[in-house]
User: Fold these one by one.
Assistant:
Number 1:
Amino acid sequence: MTGGAAAALTGLLFVAMSLHAKTIMENKFYRNRAIGTLTSLTSQLLLSGAVLIPGQPLWLLGAEVEATALFFLAVTVRAILTRGPESGSVPMPWTRRVVELVGGWTWNVLFNAAGVSLLVHAGGGLYLFAADMFLMFAWNIYVAWVLITEVSEAG
């Protein structure tokens, strides 16, 4: 179910972004939002498939989840450290900035916790992973909506 939803949402987002491709590609901030969202949804699709591999040891799934989680942790840290006028950042109210920091960190922390939990066979494993998949979907929908509204207002 998760893989199908990720594939459908990725396709819809791709179409929506293609309608504003010029504006998105001209602004590094928009471009990074678009790439981040598409990459996150694609990882959800791939990890959903990884869960279904017959006979795969739980520790190996944990390694796959954790490697992906560490990648997104690095992407998030990079996005925070490089945010500024030179990145094409758009002005946003402090409330939205807080929502974005809390939301982005919440799913990242849970993602890493799920990967570690699966690796060491303790602490909730697949339940944490399932909860994180839900949060990642919610987060990606939020970011996609914000991106499209920002681009629409800019263009």
Number 2:
Amino acid sequence: MKGPQIQRRSLLQGLAASTLVVPHWVSGRALGLEGAAPASERVLTGHIGVGGRGSDLLRGFLTNPGAQPVAVADAYHDRREATAAAIQGKAYADFRDLLARDDIDAVVIATPDHWHVPIALMAAKAGKHAYVEKPLGLTIEQDLICRNVFQEKKLVFQYGTQQRSSAHCRFGCELVRSGKIGELKRIEVIAPDGGAGGVTDPTDPPPNLDYEMWIGPAPMKPYTPSRCVTPGTYWIYDYAIGFLAGWGAHPLDIMVWGCDADLAGPMTFKGSGEIPTEGLYDTVIHWDVTVHMANGIEMTFKPGSDSTKFIGTEGWVDVRRAGISADPKSLLDIRLGPNDVHLTVSPRHDINFTESIKAGKEAIAPVADAARSDIISQMCDIAIRLGREVTWDPQKEEIVNDAEASAMMRRPMREPWRLEA
């Protein structure tokens, strides 16, 4: 038992340090993955964006008995070459060359936010399944197009909201959907706040960065040391809408997993927030949004920790990444019966993804739910930026009676990039 564990640990350390070379055909059993599928039965994955989050995901796929990472693409030359060497795979400067490979079954997209949907759509066009980090799109238009394309092509989509693969998050949502807190009346969502700052003085991009490719469909702007690194990638409006979506995706995803209040009918968004006027970062911070649902449920969204609190007529359940609490506490002792709601059980997010591909079934965090939660983030951003109430109709899938708000559902893309469906 100890031997395989050491081998697996050595591989992961080698990936992090980029010093250990492991053949791409190495068996799962050699990595300490008992029960690993034969190489011919594993899902071959290409990893697009292998920075901090992308490398974390890659380490997970390397310990996934049903996966075989074989290629990486990244705008940073040293990053892609070192990562490819660590897995003995192929490095690509242009992700489109990776997508052109017939042997790759699925891609893992962990780029800056503005690239998520454009790359996902090109992956779908190439017939690839996709694991896409949160948030989903840069706009509501991107959310809807991405959802429609993956559903029409019947490709598996896994959204990077890993809390769905946590047993306590699933249980909390099951309690709500099974009516154990009575009639749902209010939802309180909290996510970490963004921030101001960022160096604005332009300088030359580092020689190891293909800046043109990094910018891609976003407006071309002078390079600064804060632009292409965290938190700039999350807090610059050209590439994201800040933590309204970048972190809000997690607790908002739990909201849509635990109830369908956002589908009941038109939702009215009203809120306040600040947009920094100095420094490079210009996404909404310090927000305070109230959403009125068609079924009378009120949702609030504020900055703070990370939680989704469902409040009903007979108690409440608060679901957080770190745990779950409830009042009365006896709710946590409930054993759900056969007539209660039982949500999908996932051993691990990446494993659920590859198992879903092999079984030809929907993943635990499907594209329809990704679009639902991301549209809520987008609507909050639009309402704050306009400083007035805006209403979203989930049946018509449009903003009602506000032409200026409707125009904000889309953004132009820099040539030659398109949303390729």
Number 3:
Amino acid sequence: MTSEENDLINQIRSKGADLKSKERAVVRLGESLEETFILDLLPSKRLIKELVDVSENNSIPVALRRKVKVLLKYYSV
């Protein structure tokens, strides 16, 4: 997992961040996963694990969890 991906995961989990910034972080993670997919590389297992944790975390808004679940559906192996 790159440092950018780590920062984006931390931003999604942040209690102080507003919903728009969390949504932008999810979109950027999607772009990062798409770039990895285009280059025919597997996504980091740690990143996938973190996304699973985010998708199951009840403190994160439902809309964001749904978006993360969509990313997992398309990009997890």
Number 4:
Amino acid sequence: MPILPILTFPNSLLRKKAKPVKIIDDDLKDLISNMTDTLKHAQGVGLAANQVGVLKRLCIIKASPEDNYNAYINPEIIKKTGTRFVNEGCLSFPEYNGIVKRSVSITARYLDETGGKIKIAAEELLSQALEHEIDHLNGILFIDHLKEHEKLHKNGIEDGHHNHDVKISVKVENNNKEKFDSKLYTKIGIDDLNLALEKADILKEVKGK
């Protein structure tokens, strides 16, 4: 199955609210398969349909090495418990991370690939991932939850905190040139992302820069 290109901030589709899935047909199953392969390639935790340019209420999540890649159709959170601050990233913001407020645990419901109605209680990374991806489906980005006075930082995977997206697909080499995964991102998309974040003034200053 093809790897789908991932949209990067500030693409306007990331701010659009996805529409409920009314029928689980072959087209939707193909989208689920393609999104799953894309998430595998990116080695991330979750991916929402509007991140690949499709405004359908669908996301794929793999919250631990032991889990399968699961499709969540029309997911919604029906209960939240507690608050915590976690270090989080996003495949639409490759290599950037920030401290955001999330729930300690949630209760959610959704449809599986067969149309079965599922209700689950989730905590830890699954809870965080569901909040993150359902936000995407509502046109909300993780930067909207940045802790007060906090800014995004690069290479957050090295600071020992938990990241929403486990692997980052943009790396900075010693010659200061960015090397990006051209199957997932375009050079224009990465350039637009960096420019938009600089203009938004939510980036932490990098020492020695």
